[in-house]
Design a protein that fits this description.
865 residues; alpha/beta; 8-stranded parallel beta barrel
Length: 865
């Protein structure tokens, strides 16, 4: 992280705080930061002084202090992004090959004699944006962040003079002051539409224009893409994810599809209008094709009110005129007045190709028009396909209410009933079930109507979460068929728990044997998507057990699909935290088992991960470049299989880790009490950061708690227990010399250890001990020594395996970034403990400051959920 950015931003904030809250307050914030840094250096007197000062803070200063630390952490995020941009730009300026780039990938593929044309034909990456119940940033705050980051670019420009720099710094103070005066925490919980609009903001501000750039880079480094290439697609969950979400149903499905469509048309219209301004070609200097001339005559007849007809240049500037007509059709579609528009994106593309064919220049044809054509191909009129998701239990309830005999039947009979109903096209009872089952039926009906109106691409998949039986997927298939033939869904079983992952191949084998289901796959090009759940498998049985089960399921499912003559696309439900599959995406993809990708992958992008990957257009291109590079390498450069004894080691590690983890978390009946006392989990229910409830039920058990808030709570108190607990006992019992060899030669194991290392570096048991004040003494004395001992074991094992004397010893830049945050995060953690004590004693006035500490710590630690 560049020290000049940090010094500049911290100085500007100090000026703003001085104006808004007084010099004493601004100096107190600076003192807290400096003293917390001294505590980190081991000064005991500094720790005593820090805790005393925090305890003495007046009621009126609590929330402003928390907000000031939170603001500094968000500015640290901006400084880190700017450092990433500098590195990318430096590589580009020097003509050097950056690690994990497409240029590096091209060289590696050439070394292995890979047919790059074939590799590009097979390449298909689907990125699925999901709402996230631990994402704390408000849209207003994101706007301020974007404005400030753009302004800092101008400040840094060497062409900026002294007086201009002063004007820019004055503008920065204005932005920071407005930001300071903006509520960090929402006053009300966001609705589903708020989450949809937030996703649209990411598309509009970054993704839409980043995608053509990365495809251009792909072609520069690896050669031309095939005409029908489908390299990159986007889908989205907000508005369609019904699983445990009472607000999502038919109305949100319909509304979300409309919002997606309007955003896509709006962006196309803007870019067509921009192109029309640029394309001033005269008919005297370009050869207008007969097809373009015919289309212009047709346009004039169909669009007599088009503004372009009222401009004198329409007679002699045919390309600008054609683009004016195209814009008019898009406006008509946005207005919805029934006037001439386009039946689909293919018709728009055909009109744009008419313009291209009359250009007479490759320079122009491969410029902004080609980028627009790519945006049409990838985003169409739907922008991002909407995925529907619902729990298998709800699907069972809906089918049971509509298909006679299903509810009381066993699994085999259920499969038979569904197969017969699908084959015969039977609709069952003509009524709507009650409750969430009825809402599912209504949502499918709404999706069918939208697909009939706009095309099948608007609704892509129905994900069956907690799939345990083949009838869960067959039931989803029957309900969708019942909704209408226009609904061309892919049915995606989501295997989440460790047991479900273990049974996944058997479940899929039964589905593949089902005639009705296999006929559906034939209609869909013999392609099957299977989703793997990182969240619940990690919560269910420990990080190592989850990772090994996921790998085993991938290998088994890939071999099975190949034997069946099917193309398998694995859908990875990754989160931001290490225990939920988080960490660098490039490394995670490259470590996938050989033979499991074949160029195709589907991956979720969640909450704060979206901010990190798409916070800036250039960073978005870099992130996409890394993802495409990783998929190309993992699909085309085979790695030798791990030796049998290494796989046996992982079998043992997974079993022992799971046993140790579950003994603590699930088998001890007192652990739930310890968890609810030790963490700020109750604050998550009050924090307005997501529309979905944090648990699947209100029984106060860990089983009912969703995986994401489970991880979020442990991150808040700096224990990060789900990310490492159980690994220490498992690793301590093995052969560390062999583990060192495995770490050096097996990408899967290297990624496993590096992920543990990152989690351990972010874990801070010293800060966590402050939370023990909140725990009953008998619970503290029983559980804390176990946690401390396991942490010591896993840290010792990781250091022995990596051969380092300290964590992240080989990543000094990363260490510096993480350590810079601690003196701002630590005061928030200590205040959180204080405020939890007060709120648990019914001090309602302290609830707002408590919630502010939660969002502040989330900003500081970033990959929180």
């Amino acid at each position: 992280m560049d020290a000049s950015d940090v010094d500049l931003l911290e100085g500007l904030v100090h000026e703003v705080l001085t104006e808004q809250c007084g010099r004493d307050f601004a100096d107190t914030v600076s003192w807290l930061h400096a003293t917390a840094a001294r505590v980190r250096q081991g000064e005991d007197d500094a720790a005593d002084a820090l805790f005393a000062r925090l305890h003495e803070l007046s009621e009126g200063d609590l929330e402003p202090i928390i907000r000031a630390c939170s603001l500094q952490l968000q500015l640290a995020n901006i400084a880190e992004e700017r450092e990433r941009l500098r590195r990318r730009r430096a590589y580009d300026a020097e003509g050097a090959v950056q690690r994990e780039s497409l240029a590096e990938t091209a060289a590696l593929l050439a070394e292995h004699d890979v047919d790059t044309a074939a590799a590009l034909r097979d390449l298909h990456v689907e990125l699925v944006l999901t709402a996230h119940p631990t994402e704390a940033s408000r849209r207003s705050v994101l706007d301020h962040q974007d404005d400030l980051a753009a302004l800092l670019d101008r400040v840094e420009d060497p062409r900026t003079g002294r007086s201009q720099r002063e004007r820019l710094l004055a503008e920065a103070r204005e932005i920071l002051t407005i930001w300071w005066q903006t509520d960090e925490v929402r006053r009300a919980r966001p609705h589903v539409e708020d989450e949809v609009r937030r996703m649209l903001y990411v598309f509009e501000s970054v993704i839409y224009d980043a995608v053509p750039g990365v495809l251009e880079e792909l072609e520069r480094d690896l050669g031309p893409l095939p005409e029908d290439a489908n390299v990159l697609e986007y889908c989205s969950w907000p508005g369609g994810d019904m699983d445990g979400h009472p607000e999502v149903g038919a109305d949100t499905v319909t509304r979300t599809i409309e919002l997606h469509r309007r955003a896509a048309l709006r962006m196309l219209r803007t870019r067509v209008a921009r192109l029309a301004q640029r394309f001033s070609h005269s008919e005297r200097h370009v050869a207008v094709t007969e097809a373009l001339a015919v289309s212009l005559a047709r346009d004039a007849e169909e669009l007599p009110t088009a503004r372009v007809l009222r401009r004198p240049h329409h007679d002699w500037e045919p390309l600008r005129t054609k683009l004016g007509f195209i814009e008019r059709r898009l406006i008509n579609m946005l207005d919805g007045a029934g006037q001439a528009g386009y039946d689909g994106p293919g018709a728009l593309r055909a009109d744009l190709e008419l313009v291209r064919d009359s250009l007479g220049s490759e320079h122009v044809a491969h410029g902004s028009l080609r980028r627009l054509l790519r945006q049409v191909d990838i985003f169409g009129f739907h922008l991002a396909g909407l995925d529907l998701r619902q729990n298998a239990n709800v699907i069972d309830a809906a089918v049971g209410a509509l298909l006679p005999g299903f509810a009381d039947a066993g699994e085999g009979e259920r499969q038979r009933l569904l197969a017969e109903a699908i084959a015969a096209g039977r609709r069952g009872l003509e009524r709507r079930p009650d409750g969430v089952a009825g809402e599912l039926v209504a949502a499918l009906d709404a999706a069918a109507l939208a697909s009939a109106a706009y095309g099948p691409e608007v609704v892509r998949c129905l994900i069956v979460s907690m799939t345990e039986q083949p009838s869960h997927v067959l039931g989803a298939r029957w309900l969708a068929q019942r909704a209408g033939g226009a609904l061309e869904l892919r049915f995606v079983p989501l295997f989440e728990t460790l047991d479900d992952l273990d049974r996944a191949p058997a479940t899929m084998a039964t589905l593949y044997e089902n005639v009705a289901y296999r006929e559906l796959l034939r209609e869909q090009g013999d392609r099957q998507i299977v989703m793997l759940g990182y969240s619940d498998s990690g919560k269910d049985g420990s990080f190592i057990a989850s990772q090994w089960a996921l790998r085993g399921a991938q290998l088994a499912l890939a071999r099975q699909a190949a034997d069946e003559g099917l193309e398998l696309e694995l859908f990875h439900g990754r989160g931001g935290s290490t225990s939920r599959g988080g960490g660098p995406m490039y490394r995670a993809i490259v470590a996938q088992p050989t033979g499991s990708l074949h160029g195709r992958i589907r991956i979720t992008e969640q909450g704060e991960t979206i901010n990190a990957r798409y916070g800036h257009p250039e960073l978005a291109e870099r992130s996409l470049e890394q993802t495409l590079s990783a998929v190309l390498l993992a699909s085309n450069v085979a790695r030798p299989p791990a030796p049998e004894d290494w796989r046996a080691d992982l079998d043992r590690l997974a079993a022992r880790s799971r046993e140790t983890y579950r003994a603590l978390v699930y088998d001890d009946p007192q652990f739930a009490r310890f968890f609810f006392q030790m963490t700020p989990i109750e604050a998550l229910a009050e924090l307005n950061i997501g529309s979905r409830p944090p648990s699947r039920g209100g029984d106060g058990t860990i089983e009912s708690l969703r995986a994401i808030p489970w991880v979020f709570a442990w991150t808040q108190n700096r224990v990060l227990l789900p990310s490492w607990y159980g690994a220490g006992t498992a690793l301590a019992e093995g052969d560390h010399e062999r583990y060192t060899l495995m770490h050096a030669r097996w990408p899967f194991f290297a990624t496993l250890i590096s992920t543990l290392e990152m989690a351990l570096f972010k874990t801070d048991l010293g800060v966590a001990e402050r939370y023990l004040r909140l725990v009953d003494p008998e619970l503290r004395d029983h559980f804390w020594p176990q946690i401390v001992a396991e942490h010591a074991r896993v840290k010792r094992a990781v250091l022995e395996i990596t051969g380092q004397d300290r964590l992240l010893a080989g990543a000094t830049a990363l260490q510096a970034r993480l350590l810079h945050r601690d003196p701002w995060v630590d005061p928030l953690s200590h205040l959180q403990v204080e405020l939890l004590e007060r709120t648990r004693a019914d001090a309602d006035a302290d609830r707002a400051p408590l919630l502010a500490t939660v969002t502040g710590i989330a900003f500081g630690l970033r990959n929180t959920g």
